[in-house]
Design brief:
This protein is an all-beta fold and 217 residues long. The protein is built from 1 helix and 15 strands, in the order ββββαβββββββββββ.
Length: 217
């Protein structure tokens, strides 16, 4: 039986450097329970990260079916009840991050039965193959983040997530798709201070996502 572990009020991290690591910051797992909250991380320099620079994943070692398989009927998903084994990630603050080289800049994924929530990411420059991915998330806030990516289709991927804000997001001119919004639970997504005209396509809506889900000012 796994032991429940709680992480609260973690002291901020200052002036750290990472090189040739698997992930920058930081995993969790369904079935282990516990609470991860009130975490503050800042002033991190990373280089040559194998996978994600910022990694918050409530599945971690498990792999859920893709939304494409679900919508095609190739996979069925039963949402487990919330129990003591359900982890909780909330109230996490990560800022002042520089990453030179990673598979992906930001990866944030919660569970259908317990969304990851109240995550604040700001003041980052992330050079990676892929930009940012948010799934089963609620109350996620990204501000002053520049994503320098080789794969820009899309720069930012959102799946079944709500109450998201994106403020002053930078990306390279000519990006194929700035935002890909997926799933019928995606809603209340606000983008401010970001020039969508630099992308070939500002927004793509797929797998039941409504065009009203995103407001780009």
């Amino acid at each position: 039986m796994s032991k429940e572990v709680n992480f609260r009020d973690i002291v901020p991290v200052f002036e750290s450097s990472m090189q040739l690591c698997g992930q920058g910051v930081t995993p969790g797992a369904r079935g282990r329970g516990g609470v991860v909250e009130k975490i503050y991380v800042r002033n991190i320099n990373m280089r040559n990260i194998v996978h994600q620079a910022v990694f918050l994943d409530m599945y971690y070692l498990a792999k859920p079916p893709s939304i494409a398989d679900i919508y095609s009927g190739g996979a069925k998903v039963g949402i487990p009840p919330v129990t003591e084994g359900t982890p909780r990630f909330r109230d996490i603050h990560i800022s002042n991050i520089v990453c030179d080289g990673a598979e992906e800049g930001i990866f944030v994924r919660g569970l259908p039965e317990m969304n990851i929530s109240d995550i604040y990411l700001d003041n980052m420059v992330l050079k990676a193959a892929k930009g940012a991915e948010l799934a089963e998330a609620q109350g996620i806030h990204l501000a002053n983040i520049r994503l320098v990516t080789s794969d820009s289709d899309p720069v930012i991927y959102v799946e079944n997530s709500s109450q998201l804000t994106f403020d002053h997001i930078g990306y390279h001119k000519g990006a194929a798709v700035l935002f890909s919004i997926n799933g019928d639970k995606s809603r209340d997504i606000k983008v401010t201070g970001t020039d969508g005209s630099q992308a070939v396509r500002k927004v793509a809506f797929q797998y039941g996502a409504a065009e009203q889900a995103l407001q780009l000012n």
